[in-house]
Structure formats: C-alpha cells, structure tokens
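for the recovery benchmark. tokens below, seq after
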C-alpha cells in the first residue's frame, strides 16, 4: 500500500509543481507588459474567480472522492454522477447570478476598467468551476495521468493564450483573462468525456438522500475554503478599496514571488508527508508517530528556513530581475511574506493531528480566527500604511494561527519539536545570509550574475556551517549518496 501511495504521489507531483512554476515565471512577463494598476486589476479578477470556484465546487470535489467507492461498489455511479453534475450546475449558476447582480448594483464602486474585467471574470468562473468538478472523478478513479494532463494544460495553455492575446492581438490585460477562458473551452469536451466515460446523464430530480449526504460532508470544506481566502486574499480587496489598484499590483507581484518560491518547496513536503503520516498513525505505535513528526519537521526546517532567509536578503536583486522597474519598490515586503509562508509550513506539521483525529472542524476554527484577525488589522492599518501594512499583518496572522494550532493540537497528540535543530538552522542561515547579502547586492555591476553567484555560495556556506554544527547526520549523508547512486544507475539503464 505504501509503495502504491508513493507511486501515485510521483504521478501527481507534476500537477502541483508545473502550475506553480508556470505561475512563478509568468510574473516577469506580465509585470513587464502591464503597469501595477492593470496588473492589480488582473489579480483582483483572478482572485475573485479562484475563491468563488473554491467555495462553489471544492465541496463537491471532496464529496466525489469520498463517496465514489461507495456508489461504485453499489453499481450506482450513473445516479451519483448525475447528482454531482446537477448540484454543480445549480451551485455554479446560482453564484454566477449573484456575482452578476453584485456587479450591477455595485458598479459605482468599481473603476470602468475593473468592471469590464470582472464581467469577463464571471464567464471564466462559470466554466472553470465546472472544469474543477470534472477533475474530481479522475482523482477518485485514480486516473492520475489524465488528471495531471488536464491540470497542466489549464496552467500552461491558459497563460500562453493570454499572453498571445495581450501582445499579438493587443487585447490588453483582458487578454490574459480571455486566455484562461479559451484554454478551458477548448479542452472541456474532452475532459467531460474522459471523466464521465460512457455514463449517461439522468434528467429529473436529484436523489435527496444522496444530495443531503454530499452537502453535509462538503459544507465544512466550503467554510474552510472561505476562511482560507479571507486569510490569504482578502487584503487585495481592502488595498483596492483604500489605496487603489496600483498598490494592489505592487503588493501582488512581490507577494506572489515570495509565497510561490517557499510554497513550491513546502508543497513537496506536504505531498510526500500526508499518505505516509496517516499510514504510520493508523498502523504503528505512539513513539513512532512522535519520531516521524520530529523528523519531518526537522527536514522541513533544514530546507525551507534557509530558503526564506536567502529570499529575504536577496529580495532587492530578485525583485529587480523578476519584475519591471515600476514594481521594484515593493521588494521591502518580501521577508514578511517569505517567513509568513514558512510559518504556514510549520502550521501543517501540527495541523495534521486534526486529520489523524478526524477533527478538521477544529482546524476550521483556527483558520477562521486568524482570518478575522487579518481582516481586522488590515482595516486598521492599510488605510494609513498601504501594502507594507498588508504584508506585516499577513505575517502576524500566520504567526497567530500557528500558536493557536499548536495550543489546540497538543490536546490530542504531543510530540517533541526539534528546537536544537531549529537553533542550528537559524545559526547556519544567519551566516549564509550575511555572506550572500554582500555578494548579491554588490559583487559586480550585473544584478543577474550577483544573484546566481550568491545562490551558489549561499548553498555551500549553509551546508558547510550545518555540517560543522553536526546537524547533518552520517546516516543522512549515506542516504543522499544512495539516492544519487540510484539516480545515476537508472539514467545509465
């Protein structure tokens, strides 16, 4: 079973990593095509599409994965998938009409440009939400290759068509949004065929017991998605309201670079940890669980903390290279966002306890409390201090959430946090940070050369200090050697 889980994770990995990488490397292109104001409007539209899709359909996707084995065993997939499609259409159309009505009644609060983009965004939401629902049967039936293909298509083709429309056809920032729309429309019939197969659609009423079961199971997930949005994206709307789309653009560019850099690394840990952690929880003793929690957290600290430190001290040259000149001043928020993202990863190490104990409702309350704190601080500080305050309040909110999660989770399961390793990692990262700061900011007249050299030197300095502190264990060095040997043997074969 464990081998099967890790094999699946290897197949899923591209569907997580590729969209993140594509999104990361699209930032330099988009910020050079459009000024901060236009980019800020684009971010607001796509954030709206993202949150509405997550709230509307994520609960249905989770229900498909949860109830598929039940109805597949009973031979009731036709009725089940018919209910899923009907519930999806009802939910999506209801939210679409609410969004349309909101735009009409609140038109005076939007700039003309943002209002026009929001209308396009409504169409993108309409089809992207349905697209998300259709991806769920692929996961439930473990059609992982198909799932990865459709996920990667959406990210690569969406941004590719968007940039093409924006540049060659001169559609402006709206071209980026139309690109998302066209990418989904082109592939949607094929996705429907692959996801639904030869199952036929049943017209008529929805099976009430089936709908009730899915709604009861999925509603808390919708609430978690809403609170997560409140915590991570609501500051863009508050910035827009008090400071305008220009600051939204400045904030969003540096935020995305900082967060995605850390989350790309952290997502690998989450992908690898989840199935193995649950397997150990279910089948091994308490001591083994505690030992695993300690080890996975230690490895996370060793990899992600220095990444956050390096990104922070190299924020200015990194932002100068990855964005247009109009965005450069926002490099100052990078450390707050990078270390905030680092804290989210620590939070995951503790919040797994809620999954183990089947108390995800407690995680919902923890996220909600941090989200409300974030919104309150933003309303208090953003009007006066702008996007810098938004970055600081994000860090404070993530830190608060971590404290709450630690306090609550320890009621169910206590394990030893690797404080000694944290001290060694902080020390090694500090030495590295001092070295790369001067190299990255003043070695030569070329910002790119400085950045590349500083990253290479930083890795060497950090590894050396960590080795001198004896944080890297002999068995871990041997494991890395074995992994390297296996890789080269496979390459030769």
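predicted aa per position
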């Amino acid at each position: 079973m464990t081998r099967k889980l890790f094999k699946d994770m290897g197949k899923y990995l591209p569907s997580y990593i590729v969209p993140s990488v594509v999104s990361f490397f699209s930032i330099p292109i988009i910020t050079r095509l459009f000024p901060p104001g236009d980019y800020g409007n684009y971010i607001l539209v796509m954030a709206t599409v993202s949150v509405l899709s997550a709230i509307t359909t994520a609960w249905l996707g989770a229900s498909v994965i949860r109830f598929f084995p039940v109805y597949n065993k009973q031979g009731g997939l036709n009725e089940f998938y018919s209910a899923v499609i009907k519930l999806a259409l009802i939910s999506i159309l209801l939210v679409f009409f609410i969004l349309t009505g909101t735009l009409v009644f609140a038109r005076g609060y939007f700039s003309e440009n943002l209002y026009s983009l929001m209308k396009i965004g409504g169409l993108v939401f309409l089809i992207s939400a349905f697209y998300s629902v259709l991806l769920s049967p692929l996961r439930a039936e473990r059609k992982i290759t198909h799932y990865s293909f459709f996920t990667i298509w959406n990210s690569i083709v969406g941004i590719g068509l968007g940039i093409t429309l924006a540049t060659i056809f001169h559609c402006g920032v709206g071209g980026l949004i139309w690109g998302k729309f066209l990418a989904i429309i082109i592939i949607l019939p094929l996705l429907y065929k692959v996801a639904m197969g030869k199952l036929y659609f049943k017209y008529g009423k929805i099976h009430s017991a089936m709908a009730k079961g899915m709604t009861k199971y999925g509603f808390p997930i919708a609430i978690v998605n809403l609170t997560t949005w409140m915590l991570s994206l609501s500051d863009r709307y508050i910035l827009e309201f008090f400071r305008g789309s220009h600051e939204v653009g400045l904030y969003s560019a540096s935020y995305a670079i900082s967060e995605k850099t850390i989350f790309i690394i952290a997502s690998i840990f989450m992908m690898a940890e989840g199935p193995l952690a649950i397997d150990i929880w279910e089948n091994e003793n308490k001591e083994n669980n505690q030992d695993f929690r300690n080890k996975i957290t230690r490895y996370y600290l060793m990899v992600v903390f220095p990444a956050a430190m390096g990104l922070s001290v190299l924020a200015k040259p990194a932002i100068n290279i990855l964005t247009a000149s109009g965005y450069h001043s926002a490099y100052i928020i990078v450390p707050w966002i990078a270390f905030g993202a680092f804290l989210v990863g620590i939070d995951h190490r503790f919040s797994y306890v809620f999954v183990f104990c089947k108390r995800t409702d407690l995680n919902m309350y923890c996220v909600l409390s941090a989200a409300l704190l974030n919104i309150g601080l933003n309303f208090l500080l953003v009007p006066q201090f702008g996007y810098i305050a938004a970055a600081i309040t994000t860090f404070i909110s993530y830190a608060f959430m971590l404290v709450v999660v630690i306090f609550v989770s320890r009621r169910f399961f206590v394990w030893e946090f690797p404080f000694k390793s944290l001290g060694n990692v902080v020390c090694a990262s500090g030495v590295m940070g001092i070295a790369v700061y001067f190299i990255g900011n003043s070695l030569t007249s070329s910002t790119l050369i400085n950045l590349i050299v500083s990253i290479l030197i930083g890795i060497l300095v950090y590894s050396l200090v960590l080795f001198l502190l004896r944080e890297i264990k002999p068995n871990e060095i041997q494991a890395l050697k074995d992994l390297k040997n296996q890789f080269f043997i496979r390459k030769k074969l």
